[in-house]
Structure formats: C-alpha cells, structure tokens
Design brief:
With about 375 residues, the protein is mainly α. It contains 12 helices and 2 strands; from the N terminus they run H-H-H-E-E-H-H-H-H-H-H-H-H-H. Strands 1-2 form a two-stranded antiparallel ribbon. It starts with a helix and ends with a helix.
C-alpha cells in the first residue's frame, strides 16, 4: 500500500512539473508571437510612412510642398497610395511564367522581413513577473543569419525579372543580382574587423559590449574604433538596398522601369515595400553594429533604472534605437536627392577595385593592432 502511495506521489509530481513546463512554453510562445506580430506591423507602418517622409524631404530639398492633399499635412497619403495599389487591376503577362511571376515579389517581401528576427530592439521588460526580451531570437550567429537572408533577396529580383519575359526586366535583374553579390563581399570583409574586436556574432552581445564603454556607453561605440569599416559597410548598404547612387537596377532612363516593369497592383507594391523595409532594417543593423543599438548615449542605464524603473529605461532604449534609425533613414533620402547615379562600370569599379582592397587593409590593420595590444 505504501509503495502504491509513493508511486502515486511521484506520478503527481511529474504531472505538475509537466504542466509547469507546458505553461512556461505557452507563455514563451505567446510572447514571441506577439513580438513577431509587433515587429512586422511596425516595419510595415514605418515602410509606409518612409515613402511619405521621402517625398517630403525631396520637396524641401527642391523647394516644393510635397504631399499635402490626403489628410492634414498629407499624412494620409501613404494610406491613399496603398489603397490605390490594392484596388488596381492585377495584370499578369500572357508570356510570363505565372508561378514564378507571383513568387518573385513574395520572396522579396519575406526576405526583407526575416532579417528583423535577430535585431535586439531593446533590453528586457518585466510583464506580470516575467522578463521578456525585446528580441525575437538571440542566436550566436546573428550576423551570419542576416547575410544568409540578405543573399536570398537576390532570388526575388532575379525571379521577378526573368519570369516577366521582358528583356529590359531581365537586364535590370542581372544588374541587380551582380551588384548585390559584388557588394556583399566588401560588406562581409568590413565586418570581419569588427568581429575581431567583439569576438561574437551575436548582435545582442555586440550591443552589450558597446554599452560597457565610458560616457554612458558612448566611448564604447564601434564607430569610434572602426570608422573605415563603418564607411565601407554604409556604402555597401546603399548598394544592397538599390538606393541612389547605386539604383542601377531601376534606372528609368536606361531600362524603361527596372526589374518590376511588368508588375502592377500589390505585386508591384510588394517590391516597393520591400525596398523601404530593407532601408529600415539596414538602418537598424548599422545602428546596432556601430552606434550602440539601444544604448542611450551619455546615460548610465543601470543608475537610471533605480530611479525610473527597468521597464521605463528599456522603452527609452527602444526610443534611442528608433532615433538612430530615423537619422539613417533621413541620410538615405538626403543622398538620393543630392548625388547623381553612377554608371554601371563605375559601380563595379568601386566595389571590386576600391571597397574590397580597403576592407582587406582595414582587416589587416585591425589584426595587427589587436596583436600589439594583447602582447
């Protein structure tokens, strides 16, 4: 009888522990699901209003008013543009490959969104006694994940251009693919020097290392130690996003429209949205790698947390990261409406003959300095 009671107690304890594990897993799954939904929604809203901001910045630089009809100050213009694209007639060319014609813009949109998974948007917040990390996935190969997903974006461009069965679209797709592949080399080499300093591929670890610097983390920002690496990475980001002066795949005066010439309605909208989402995510990655991420400059977060509370400081960190992202988004727009487009031979010359040797030299110098300091 006593043995039976003992077995029953063991079974009850196992059931309780199993229920506890299931409960923990449920809440963990729920918080990650909500975080994914929030990041995707926020990225889409930012992409919408980046189009509005770009038109306003262009108007200011060209002494115009910009959008001012749809809503107060034209704030509803992105919604009007989205509805226009949504309700337009969908046209699929008869000579196109219909399956790939649909997959192209979908793949471009998916790859643009996937890179947000490893970006630390903030530290942690305490909700109902649970510490919730403001990062979807903290993997120790975060930068490699970003490069892997970004390389898949080439297929969205190539599939869209080839499946259209239009020679101009195909030429633009080949341009875009060769451009992205070429500048990925210089981008990867520029980050090797950064990885030598940090010793980690995790984006969260890189942010935390920067936050440990003096002046409230400001003296720990990697841009102070890798200015050449930052400059090379930033130029490559412009090329990866197909932004002026590297917008050769969309050179209207040469290629009629670009790799999405045959697209209409929301398929065209997906390609346009993917470009602005890539701008947003690229700005977040630059801010994370070189400008401290969610670090609040000149402020000691630990001391501030005792005064305001951990949740408030975490939200202030998110605001600091967003401020850095907004600055780089403005920089994207400023460059577009200031600098003319390169010729294609100039674009390739810069990538292969200038940026790659500079990145290799920066990597070599960084290695020598680290060895000298560690003697």
């Amino acid at each position: 009888m006593g043995q039976l009671q003992g077995k029953c107690l063991i079974i009850q304890q196992k059931l309780k522990s199993s229920m506890t594990i299931l409960q923990i897993d449920f809440f963990y799954f729920l918080e990650k699901l909500l975080l994914i939904g929030g990041v995707i929604t926020f990225s889409l809203v930012i992409a919408m209003y980046t189009t509005y901001a770009e038109r306003k910045v262009a108007a200011v630089l060209q002494d115009r008013l910009g959008p001012n009809r749809a809503g107060p100050f034209g704030l509803l213009q992105p919604l009007a543009d989205g509805l226009k694209l949504f309700f337009k007639e969908e046209i699929i060319p008869l000579t196109s490959n219909k399956l790939l014609f649909v997959i192209g813009p979908a793949l471009a949109m998916i790859t643009a969104m996937l890179t947000s998974a490893v970006i630390p948007w903030g530290s942690t917040v305490n909700i109902f006694g649970r510490n919730v990390s403001l990062q979807i996935a903290d993997v120790n190969i975060g930068i490699l994940y970003v490069f892997g997903v970004v390389s898949l974006g080439v297929y969205g461009i190539m599939i869209g251009g080839w499946s259209s069965n239009n020679k101009f679209s195909l030429i633009a797709a080949v341009r875009g693919a060769s451009q992205i592949i070429s500048y990925e080399l210089a981008m990867g080499l520029s980050l090797i020097a950064l990885l030598m300093m940090t010793g980690s591929l995790s984006l969260k670890t890189i942010v935390e290392q920067q936050m440990s610097g003096g002046w409230g983390g400001f003296l720990g920002w990697n841009v102070l130690y890798q200015p050449l690496g930052f400059l090379i990475f930033l130029i490559c980001v412009f090329a990866e996003c197909n932004r002026t002066p590297f917008d050769l795949p969309e050179a209207e005066n040469e290629l009629n429209f670009g790799y999405h010439q045959e697209y209409s309605s929301m398929k065209l909208g997906f390609y346009l949205f993917a470009e602005y989402i890539n701008m947003f995510i690229s700005s977040a990655i630059v801010s994370t790698l070189f400008f401290g991420g969610y670090d609040i400059p000149f402020v000691n977060e630990a001391t501030l947390a005792h005064t305001l509370g951990g949740n408030v400081v975490a939200l202030l960190g998110v605001a600091a990261l967003l401020a850095k992202i907004v600055f780089f988004l403005f920089f994207f727009m400023w460059v577009r409406w200031t600098i003319p487009r390169f010729r294609y031979d100039q674009l390739m010359d810069l990538g292969w003959k200038k940026l790659i040797p500079l990145a290799l030299a920066n990597m070599l110098i960084t290695a020598i300095v680290i060895l000298w300091l560690n003697k």
